[in-house]
Description:
The protein is mainly α. Helices cover 83% and strands 0% of the residues. It has one domain (2-144). The protein has helices at residues 2-6, 9-28, 33-37, 39-120, 134-144. α2 packs antiparallel against α4 (39-120) and α4 runs antiparallel to α5 (134-144).
Amino acid sequence: MWILQWLPNWIFYAIFFAGLLGLVATFVMKFIPLVYVYRTPIQAVSVVLIALGTYMAGAISNEEAWQARVKEMEAKVEAAAVESAQENVKIVEKVVKKTEYIKTRGEDIVKFIDKEIVKYDTKFLPGGQCEIPKEFIEAHNRAAEAPK
């Protein structure tokens, strides 16, 4: 509630006890003329003050419970952020390793093909056709496979 931000909590407890004191005063002090003459209005105001004090005490308690939950959730979010940062580091490391593996694997296949192409580069069949060796097909298929 907005009023809880402006006024300190003790004011609402003081309102409650003032209402309680006024209600008790109207029943106990019948011999004081000022209290006896204005007995009904004092009782009505006292009941309103007791109700207001009780309501605001409940609002204070509710606000404290919500603030405790907010602090608890903030702690959980902070813990999740730390855990997320750790997981991000692990993911980046895996990506770097996998990228290095793919790059190394690609370089190995290129070296193999460059080595093998020299053997078959000059062999042409009649009619301008080129013979595709079995090693090229296997190297091509290995290059197309997903890394394990």
